[in-house]
Amino acid sequence: MADLFKNIYNQAFFDKFASSVTEVVLNFDTQSFLKDIYNEEWKEKELKQRMKHITYVLKKYLSKDFKTNVETILKLIPTLKKNGFKPDNLEFIFFPDFIETYGQDDYETSVNAFETITQFVSCEFAVRPFIINNQETMLNQMFLWSKHHHHMVRRLASEGCRPRLPWAMAIPSLKENPEPIISILENLKNDVSEYVRRSVANNLNDISKDNPKTVLKLVKSWKGVTKETDSLTKHACRTLLKQGNLEIMGMFGFGSIDNIEITDFKTLTSKVIIGDTLEFSFNIANKSNSKSKIRLEYGLYYQKANGSLSKKVFKISEKDYPKNSITRINRKQSFKVITTRKFHIGKHQVSIIINGKELEKKDFELIK
After folding, report:
1. Which DSSP state fits 93?
2. pTM of the entire structure?
C-alpha cells in the first residue's frame, strides 16, 4: 500500500532537519523540538495541518524578532543544501508559511525573504495574502520578479498571482478583473524555462474560467509567434476547449462536424460495480472527401448526493481522421474508490463530444 503523502514528514526528515538547524541556531534543543512536533494530535493531522504545526513549533524555538528569524531561515537554506536536501522539496513549505504567518506587518522583510526562499521551495501560496492586503504594491513587485535571473522567482511572479490557484485561497479581485496581472504574463510568455511558461498557461486557464474574452484576446495576439507560445496558448485554453468554445475551437483548427457521425455507440457494462470499470465503444465516421481534424472527448455524468448529475469531460484524442473513414473507439473509465471523489450509486450517463459539441448519450448504473 502506498504511503500517505502527509508522511513526507517522517522521523528521517526531522532528524536530518533538526541536525541542520543545530549548525545555525545556537543551543537548539532538538529533543524538545521533536517532542513538540510529535504531540498527541500529530498522527491525525493532514499534510497542510502538519505544515502549519511545524511553523508554530519552529517559531517557539527561534527568536521573538521576525527579522532575526528570517535571517536564520535564510542562513539555514544553504546548510540544508549542503546536508543533502535538494531545492523544491515540498517538505519545506513551512518556510514560506512562516513568512506568511508572522510577516504580514513587515512587508519589506517578507518580500525579500520570498525572493530567496522561493529558489529553494516555492512561495506561491504564501504570497497570496500579501496580494489581497496590498495588491498594487505586491503586483508591482511581482512584475519586477518576472524579470529576475532565477527561473523560480520568475515562476513565482506568475504562479503566485493565479486567480484560482488550486489548494490555495482564491484572489477575488483578480477573478473579477485580471488586467493587473496581464503585464506580468506578457513578460513571461517567451520565457526560456518551460516550467515558467507552463505556469503562465495555468494562470491564463484560471482567467478563462471567469474572463474568457481576456484570454481570447491574448491568445489571438500570442498564437503563431513561436512554437513555445503555440504550446502555451493551447494548454491555456484547455478549459475553453472542454467547454466547446466555438471561437477557440476554430482558432485551433477544429471546424464543422457536419460530415462526422457517431454510430454503434454501446455501453458494454450497463451496470458498473464501484471499484470496477465502465467500458464503452463507438464508431466515428468521417463522411467528408477530405481529412477532418477532430477533438474527441467523452462526458461522464456523475450522480451527486441529491440525485442530480454533474458532468466531467475527459479527452480521448486530437488528430486528423482520414477522408471517408470509419474508426472504432474503445474506452474504459475507472470507478476505483479515490479520496477526491465520492461515488453515489444509481443512474449515471456517458456522452460523446466532438469539437465541443455533445452528441449521443447513454445511461448506465453504478451499483455496490
Report:
1. G
2. 0.88
